[in-house]
C-alpha cells in the first residue's frame, strides 16, 4: 500500500494503544517516552522525532487528544494514520479489548506491520498479547512480536523505554544504551574530572613549584591524601554506584600524580599509593576482560608491597598491603587457569591474615581479612579439587571469623555483605553434596542479609548484582532436585535485575556475561523438561543464541562451552568433547559448572 501524505509526514511520534484498565501504566510510559531526549551523537532515521528538540513528536494516547470528529472511530483512524508508530501496551486486559484490536487493525491497514511495537506491562506473552498482534508464518504457526518488557522482573521502565526509543529512532539498542549511560553519568564524570584536575595541579606544584623541602613535604602529603581519597572513597563509591569506564578515569587521574617521577625517589607512603593504584588498575582490567593486563599490573603491585614488607616484616599495615597483593595474584592466576600459582597466592594471603590476627586478636578488620582468606581457600578447594568436605570446613571457619568481627561491629555493611557471600559459597557446596535443604537455607540466609543491606542502600549495584545471582543459585538448586519448572521464575527475576545493571554499565563485560548466563540456564531448565512441555524449537534456538559471540564479544570461554553443550543436546547431537583442564581443575571458574556432568545429565530430544 502506498503511504499517504500524513503517513510520510507524521504528526504524532506514536499512537499508544491500551486498555482503560491500564491507564496508570499508560500515563507513566507516555511521560517517559515524551520526556526522553535522544543523545546528541545519535541521529534518528525515522519521522517520529523533532529534529530541533531531539525528542519524540507528541504521542497520541487518549480521547482527550482528539479533535472534533464525526465519530470516535473516525477520530481514532485519523490519529492512527498520522502516527509514525503504534505502541501496544500488552496485558491480559488489553488482550481482551475490542478497541485495542481495532486500533491494531487500523494501523496495519495504514502502515503495515513494521512499525507496530509491543510493550509488555503485565501477565505473560501467552496471556498479554492481543490476538491481532500475532502473525502467521509460512507454515500457519503464530509468531509473537518481540516486546519491551516493562514488568518489574523484566527490563523495567528505563530499559523498556530505551528498547522502544531505539526502534522509533532507527538506532542500535547497544549504541543507545551506551550513550544514555554516559549521559546519566556526566555529572559524576564532571566531579571526577574536577578532582583529577586538583590532583594534577597538586602534583605539578609538588614537583615544579616548590622552593623548600618543608613545602615539598607539605605538598606531597596533600597529593598523597588526594590520591588516597580517589583510590579509596571515590573508587568504592563508583564500584557501588558507577561503572567500569568511570573507574578507569579515576585511575588515570591518580596516575597523573606519579607520571614523570623517579620511582626510586618515592617516599614509603607514595610507594604504598602506587601499589594500591596498580591493584586498582588490575581489578578494572579484569572487569573489562583484559586478563593479561590485569596480571601485569598486579605483579607490579606485588613486587612493591613485598619490598616494603621485607623492610619492616612486623608492621601490620605493610602485612595488610602485601596480603592484598597476594589475594589479587591468586585471583588473577585462577582466572588464567594457573591453579598452582593461584593456590600459592591464596595460601600466602591466608598466612598473612593469620599473622595479623595473631598480633591483634580482637581487631575486627584483621578478622575480616581472615574470613576472606578462609573463604578463598574454600572456593579453591571446591572448584579445583571438588573437595566438598574441605571446602565446607573452610567456609564455616570463614563464617566464624566474620561472626566474631560482627560482635564488635554489629551493623557494619561490609561484615554483613561478607557473611552473605560466604553463605552463598556454603550453599553451592551443600548443593553439590546433595544437601538441597541445607543449600536452600544457606541461600535464604544470604538473601535476607542482602535484602536488609539493599533496603538501606538501594542504589548499590554490587548488592543488586548479588541479589540477582542469588536468584540464579535458587534456580540451580531446583534444577539439581529435578524440578526444572521451579527454576523458571527465579531465572526471570534475576535476569531482569541483571539486565538493568548491564544497561547502566555497558563497558562491563562481566555484567553482560551475567545477563547471558540466565538465558543459558533457562534453556538448561527447558531441556530438563519433557519434550511436550518445552517451548517451540525456534524459541529454544533463539535462547541458545550464538556461542561464537560468547567467546568473541564477551571473551568468555566458559559461556561458549556451556552454550555449545546445550546447542548439541538441543538438536539431539553428541555434545562436544570436554577436555579436562591442564591443571586438573574440576569445576569452571565463573559459575562452577561440571561440564562433563552437564553433557551427560541434560536429556536429549
Report a brief summary of the structure.
With about 600 residues, this protein is mainly alpha-helical.
Major sheet description: 5 strands, parallel
Structural class: mainly alpha
CATH top-level class of the domain at 5-173: Alpha Beta
Please give the alpha-carbon distance between the first and last residues.
44 Å
User: For the residues shown, what is the average pLDDT?
Assistant: 83
Counting DSSP H or I runs of 4 or more residues, the number of helices is 26
**Residues in β-strands, percent:** 5-15%
Strands side by side in the biggest sheet? 4-1-5-6-9
Give me the count of strands.
9
Multimeric organization: single chain
By CATH, the topology of the domain at 5-173 is Rossmann fold
Poorly predicted spans: 1-7, 64-69, 209-235
* Percentage of residues in helical conformation: 55-70%
CATH superfamily of the domain at 5-173: Toll/interleukin-1 receptor homology (TIR) domain
What is the CATH-assigned architecture of the domain at 5-173? Answer: 3-Layer(aba) Sandwich
Q: In angstroms, what is the radius of gyration?
A: 28 Å
Shape: globular
Can you offer a commentary on this structure?
There is one protein chain. With 605 residues, the chain is mainly α. Among the domains are: 5-173, Toll/interleukin-1 receptor homology (TIR) domain (Rossmann fold, 3-Layer(aba) Sandwich); 492-605, no CATH class. The protein is built from 26 helices and nine strands. A five-stranded parallel beta sheet has the order 4-1-5-6-9, with helices on both faces. The longest helix is centred in the middle third of the chain and has 29 residues, at 213-241. It is globular and about 90 Å long. It starts with a helix and ends with a helix.
Amino acid at each position: 500500500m502506498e503511504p499517504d501524505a500524513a503517513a510520510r509526514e507524521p504528526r504524532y511520534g506514536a499512537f499508544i494503544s491500551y486498555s482503560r484498565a491500564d491507564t496508570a501504566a499508560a500515563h507513566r510510559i507516555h511521560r517517559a517516552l515524551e520526556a526522553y531526549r535522544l543523545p546528541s551523537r545519535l541521529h534518528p532515521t525515522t519521522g517520529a522525532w523533532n529534529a530541533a528538540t531531539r525528542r519524540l513528536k507528541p504521542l497520541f494516547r487518549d480521547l482527550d487528544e482528539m479533535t472534533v470528529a464525526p465519530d470516535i472511530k473516525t477520530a481514532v483512524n485519523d490519529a492512527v494514520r498520522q502516527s509514525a508508530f503504534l505502541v501496544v501496551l500488552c496485558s491480559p486486559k488489553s488482550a481482551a479489548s475490542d478497541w485495542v484490536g481495532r486500533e491494531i487493525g487500523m494501523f496495519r491497514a495504514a502502515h503495515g506491520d513494521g512499525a507496530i511495537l509491543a510493550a509488555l506491562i503485565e501477565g505473560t506473552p501467552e496471556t498479554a498479547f492481543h490476538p491481532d498482534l500475532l502473525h502467521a508464518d509460512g507454515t500457519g504457526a503464530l509468531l509473537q512480536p518481540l516486546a519491551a518488557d516493562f514488568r518489574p522482573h523484566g527490563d523495567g521502565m528505563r530499559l523498556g523505554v530505551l528498547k522502544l526509543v531505539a526502534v522509533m529512532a532507527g538506532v542500535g539498542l547497544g549504541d543507545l544504551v551506551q550513550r544514555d549511560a554516559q549521559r546519566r553519568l556526566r555529572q559524576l564524570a564532571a566531579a571526577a574530572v574536577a578532582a583529577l584536575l586538583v590532583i594534577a595541579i597538586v602534583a605539578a606544584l609538588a614537583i615544579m613549584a616548590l622552593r623548600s623541602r618543608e613545602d615539598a613535604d607539605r605538598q606531597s602529603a596533600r597529593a598523597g591524601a588526594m590520591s588516597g581519597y580517589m583510590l579509596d572513597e571515590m573508587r568504592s563509591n563508583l564500584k557501588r554506584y558507577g561503572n567500569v569506564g568511570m573507574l578507569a578515569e579515576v585511575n588515570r587521574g591518580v596516575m597523573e600524580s606519579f607520571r614523570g617521577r623517579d620511582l626510586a625517589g618515592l617516599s614509603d607512603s607514595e610507594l604504598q599509593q602506587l601499589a594500591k593504584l596498580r591493584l586498582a588498575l588490575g581489578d578494572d582490567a579484569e572487569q573489562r576482560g583484559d586478563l593479561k593486563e590485569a596480571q601485569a599490573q598486579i605483579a607490579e603491585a606485588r613486587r612493591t608491597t613485598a619490598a616494603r614488607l621485607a623492610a619492616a616484616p612486623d608492621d601490620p599495615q605493610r602485612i595488610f598491603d602485601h596480603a592484598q597483593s597476594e589475594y589479587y595474584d591468586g585471583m588473577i592466576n585462577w582466572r588464567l587457569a594457573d591453579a598452582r600459582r593461584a593456590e600459592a597466592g591464596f595460601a600466602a594471603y591466608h598466612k598473612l591474615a593469620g599473622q595479623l590476627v595473631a598480633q591483634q586478636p580482637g581487631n575486627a578488620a584483621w578478622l575480616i581479612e581472615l574470613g576472606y582468606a578462609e573463604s578463598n581457600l574454600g572456593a579453591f578447594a571446591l572448584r579445583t579439587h571438588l573437595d566438598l568436605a574441605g571446602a565446607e570446613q573452610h567456609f564455616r571457619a570463614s563464617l566464624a571469623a566474620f561472626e566474631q568481627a560482627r560482635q564488635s561491629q554489629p551493623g557494619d555493611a561490609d561484615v554483613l555483605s561478607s557473611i552473605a557471600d560466604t553463605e552463598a559459597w556454603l550453599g553451592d557446596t551443600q548443593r553439590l553434596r546433595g544437601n538441597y535443604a541445607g543449600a536452600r537455607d544457606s541461600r535464604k540466609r544470604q538473601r535476607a542479609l542482602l535484602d536488609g543491606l539493599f533496603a538501606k542502600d538501594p542504589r548499590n549495584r554490587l548488592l543488586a548484582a548479588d541479589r540477582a545471582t542469588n536468584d540464579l543459585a535458587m534456580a540451580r538448586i531446583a534444577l539439581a532436585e529435578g524440578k526444572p519448572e521451579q527454576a523458571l521464575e527465579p531465572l526471570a527475576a534475576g535476569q531482569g535485575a541483571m539486565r538493568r545493571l548491564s544497561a547502566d554499565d555497558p563497558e562491563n563485560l562481566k555484567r553482560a556475561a551475567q545477563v547471558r548466563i540466565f538465558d543459558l540456564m533457562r534453556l538448561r531448565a527447558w531441556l530438563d523438561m519433557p519434550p511436550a512441555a518445552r517451548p517451540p524449537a525456534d524459541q529454544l534456538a533463539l535462547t541458545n543464541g550464538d556461542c561464537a559471540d560468547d567467546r568473541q564479544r564477551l571473551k568468555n570461554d566458559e559461556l561458549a562451552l556451556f552454550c555449545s553443550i546445550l546447542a548439541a543436546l538441543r538438536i539431539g547431537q553428541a555434545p562436544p568433547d570436554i577436555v579436562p583442564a591442564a591443571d586438573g581443575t574440576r569445576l569452571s571458574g565463573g559459575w562452577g559448572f561440571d561440564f562433563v556432568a552437564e553433557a551427560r545429565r541434560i536429556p536429549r530430544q
